[in-house]
Amino acid sequence: MKLIIASNNAHKIREIKEILGEKFEQILSLRESGIEHETVEDGSTFLENARKKAKEIAKISGVCALADDSGICVDALGGAPGIFSARFAGEHGNDEANNALLLKRLEAEQNRAAHYTCAMVLAYPDGKTVEAEGYFYGSITRCPRGDRGFGYDPLFVPTGSERTVAEYTDEEKNAISHRAEALRLLLSKL
How many helices, marked H, and strands, marked E, lie in the chain? Predict the structure, then answer.
């Protein structure tokens, strides 16, 4: 079965392809499939945004589409940045600015508990969907560490670890991340 990942985020696409392995005959990004489409993420939850992206791309392409919406939720900030994680500092995808703003907002906070959330939706061309959510719990450091991963990985220390996710290998991260959990749950429903 052919699958289109409803994203052009190279980091997410690589992670998803590595986690899915040989589960599909062909896995393509939007760019690889020749689709130029930007879904307006106007949902109020990760699941609403992922569902909308997956359904739009399945309808456009006529093949199965997989979409995720994910981000970091910080307890002391009432769950923010949440669905606004990628554009927390204003510019979409500016990891450095997003990390700097998060650290600034948490400067005086002792409670640094946080979790990543990933909503994953597989949509079929007929509109049917399979949905799953994964979570990854930990805390926010006081300064970035590590040069791997993306997003908030240099600030996020998983529960029970002393390293940030940006200090993990790809294999270590893909074994325990929110995205890996969501994909495992989704695959178990197929």
Answer: 5, 6
- pLDDT tens profile 60-117: 999 999 999 999 999 999 999 999 999 999 998 899 999 999 999 999 999 999 999 9
Q: Look at the chain and count its residues.
A: 190
For the segment 20-50, what is each residue's pLDDT rounded down to a tens digit?
877 888 999 999 999 999 999 999 999 999 9
How far from 5 is each of 1, 14, 28, CA to CA, in Å? 13, 10, 6
Q: Is position 95 annotated as part of the catalytic site? A: no
* Distance, CA of 63 to CA of 93 (rounded, Å): 28
Residues 42, 68, 69, 147: which is the catalytic one? 69
Q: What is the CATH number of domain 2-189?
A: 3.90.950.10
Domain boundaries, the chain: 2-189
**Strand duo 129-140 + 113-123: pairing:** antiparallel
Q: Of 159, 75, 171, 72, which Cα lies nearest the Cα of 118? A: 72
Tens-place pLDDT, residues 11-20: 888 889 888 8
* DSSP output for 29-44: ETTTTT---------S
Q: The dihedral of CA 27, 54, 86, 169: what is its sign?
A: negative
Res 21: pLDDT? 77
- Cβ contact 68:120 at 8 Å: yes
